[in-house]
Amino acid sequence: MLELSGISKTYAKSAVKAVDDLSVAVRDGEIFGFLGPNGAGKTTTIKVLTGVLRADSGHAMVDGIEIAADPLGAKRRIGYVTDNPELFARLKAAEYLNFVGDVYGVDTVTRQSRVAEYASRFEIKDALGGSIGSFSHGMKQKLLITASLLHDPQNWVLDEPMVGLDPKAAFALKEIMRTRAAAGKTVFFSTHVMEVAERLCDRLAIINKGRIVFTGTLAELKAMQGADGSLESLFLELVDDDAEA
Amino acid sequence: MNVYLSLARLYIQSFYNLPTGKSPGMKRDQKSIRKAIAFGALMVLVVGDFGYLFVMVNLGMYKGLAMVGMQGILVLNAAIMATMLTLVVGFMTALSTYYLNDMELQLLSMPIQPRALFGAKFTAVYISEALFSVFFMAIAMMVFGIKEGPNPLFYVWGTLAGLLLPFPVLAVSYLIQIPLLSCAGFLKNKRTIMIVGGVVGIAAALGFNVFIQNMMMRIQDPAALADSMASPDSFITRMGSVYPPALFAWRAMSHPASAGAIGSMLAMVVVCLAGPAIVIFFLSGAYAKSLVGFNEAHVRKLTKTGADRFITRHIRSGYLFLTLVRRELAMMNREPMYLLNGPFIIILMPIVVGVMFMVQKNALLNDPGLAGLRAFVDGGFGCALAGLVGAFMGSSTSIACTSVSRDARILPFMKSLPLKPATYMLAKLAHGLIFAFLGSIIGVGLITVVLRLGPVDVLASFPAALSMSILLNVGGLWLDTANPRLDWENPIAAMKQNPNAVIAILGGMVLLGGSGYIAFRASMGSAAFALWFGAVPFVMSLVMLAPYPRFAEKRMARMEA
């Protein structure tokens, strides 16, 4: 379970709040979509949730553990896929997976079976001996996703995970999300792709200019807006209304 | 704005990492201003240091040449040296910036004339070369001007010559590189280019060192210096007669107020600008084409059974701390250009010192002032010198003092991992200490060979060298944790344009110089040196390390890379 309450964050070099009094709760067994325009505060929220950034105020909890109080305990319960797969270009894929495995304390047998499973699903098994620097954007993304699942986290946090993935890999990713949610684990992801959010999410939140403008199911969003359009049209209406207000 | 000017501005900003104006919504950052001022002051110090060296060389030359009435050759020498320096540095700069980054592929997709693209890049590279060249000419002008009091036009022609001299050499650099990179596919890789550029840089640095050592030696004997420079067979005379731009500059500056001077300068303008004009006119298309396919990488693939075997063999758990240290080593900048200032300085420095020793060996051995050196060395100074050189080698790698800055791009990911900041940072220190150990061995070994030290001196100097290296590395880590450079475009900037590296090296020099002074004044023997300079820095390192984990945790939490 992931819980953010009253989170505000202003970057040191900025005069504007990136996130302003944000509260969201994601339950176990739920796929939660986090939507918003560019620069709305999605990545900042995810960075606070994963302990990358310290919030100016508010609380971030992972399975009941306050991340500021016990950062290591909270981080161990998260698998995180960043929005920037430009990592460790000088390492080989296997070296990177071993690095992440060692940080999360995954034993050799479990590590080998999970690498074999996810690398096969994302079709990067034959490239494990290759240097990350020679990988395409999509391959790096697949490697990041594989690494994030090595320790079978209770909470899976993904920042724009579909970017760069081929249709087969995107399908595999959605399948893994569903399987994990069905097993009672939490999936929290940000996306710009409305179709994905519409089909995949149990609940979603929409953020604009650092503030949450909606949290709930798609049906609740339709009811609130008094319209029966697609998520895309509802999202645009909501964001535009908020901009005008 | 004109496309060429827009591109030139873009390239200049990218090459030189120039600060941009304050963005709307951003706070005025007093700390950045203070940092910029401090970095500027450091640059003035470094430039002043080199300036002093060249002033002394030029003064020595002037004295020698004035004795035979040929002091005018000083100007020809400056023009030729400016040409040679810009040829070497310009060739390296042109090569290392030939393909800047993937931004260039995007530029290729835009409706931009190849001439505007190449012309803009030429302009950006030219700026640094012009600064070098004008710097060289200005020092010669200053020395000659004070001594001879020439017509004010002398300075105008000298400055103009300084600005014009890099044009033909840069044109030649591109004339070689464009066909080479158009044909040789293996060179179309940024890392390969860095390796080639690094090797050229090392060769140039060694050549320059030999030149300066030779000049410094001859300064002692002005008559021999004048003879070696002004004789018909000298390099300066031969270059002057076959390289028209240097000859034109010399002629114009020798008689600055004459009509011939204007003619010489006009001829120089035509000759110098012809090179870039020809290269830009004829080779721009080839240059743009050669950028296509740059940095293409091919993934090495395993067979299906090979992949299974690979997982069984290579996916294995390990000790976390060792994994972190291995990551530091794997991520380390390994290109040869880091021999110049970076981890591999521990290899280059002994070569440079070896060259100095070989060039000046006879002079050193025959110097009556050094006759008592042996007794001095045996009295404990040899041990101290070995220890200090070892400590310098072990602390000048810039590993610890740039360790956080170099990780700026991956810092958000590292912070998301369940990893104690202290463990992460101490792995960085361990990386620095591996090189501190190697540097101390090489430094002590070098002085041991040169001064033929005995085993007692070696045994006493090595622990002191290592202990002082540890202290300086711990200091460097504190420095980069407190004030990392987290905003950079190019990973080279994290090490080579990092004020922390300059502060650490200068601070190390001051500390080691002070330690040498104390050892010398106290007439310390080997045992006393080992005790004081082994034990005290070690204890200081422990004292500095004790509060470090808490400090690292606090700083990491605040970093917003």
Q: What does the main sheet of chain B amount to?
A: none
Shape of chain B: globular
- Main β sheet profile of chain A: 6 strands, mixed
Largest interface: A-B, 56 and 43 residues
Unreliable stretches covering 5 or more consecutive residues of chain A:
none
Distance between the termini of chain B: 33 Å
Stretches with pLDDT under 50, minimum 5 residues of chain B: none
Contiguous helical run count of chain B? 24
Helicity of chain B, in percent? over 70%
Radius of gyration of chain A: 18 Å
> What is the overall pLDDT average of chain A?
90
CATH fold name of the largest domain in chain A = Rossmann fold
Question: How is the secondary structure organized here?
Answer:
The complex is a heterodimer of chains A (about 240) and B (about 550).
Chain A: E1 2-10, E2 17-26, E3 31-35, H1 42-49, E4 57-62, E5 65-66, H2 71-76, E6 78-81, H3 93-104, H4 108-121, H5 137-148, E7 155-159, H6 167-182, E8 186-191, H7 194-200, E9 203-208, E10 211-216, H8 218-225, H9 231-244
Parallel strand pairs in A: 3-8, 3-9, 6-7, 7-8
Antiparallel strand pairs in A: 1-2, 1-4, 4-5, 9-10
Chain B: H1 3-16, H2 30-67, H3 73-96, H4 103-108, H5 114-148, H6 153-164, H7 166-183, H8 190-219, H9 222-230, H10 235-242, H11 244-254, H12 259-291, H13 304-314, H14 320-331, H15 345-366, H16 373-395, H17 403-406, H18 411-416, H19 421-451, H20 455-482, H21 491-496, H22 499-521, H23 526-545, H24 548-558
Helix pairs in contact in B: 1-5, 2-5, 2-8, 2-9, 3-5, 3-7, 3-8, 3-11, 5-6, 5-12, 6-11, 6-12, 7-12, 8-15, 11-12, 14-19, 15-19, 16-19, 16-20, 16-22, 16-23, 19-20, 19-24, 20-22, 20-23
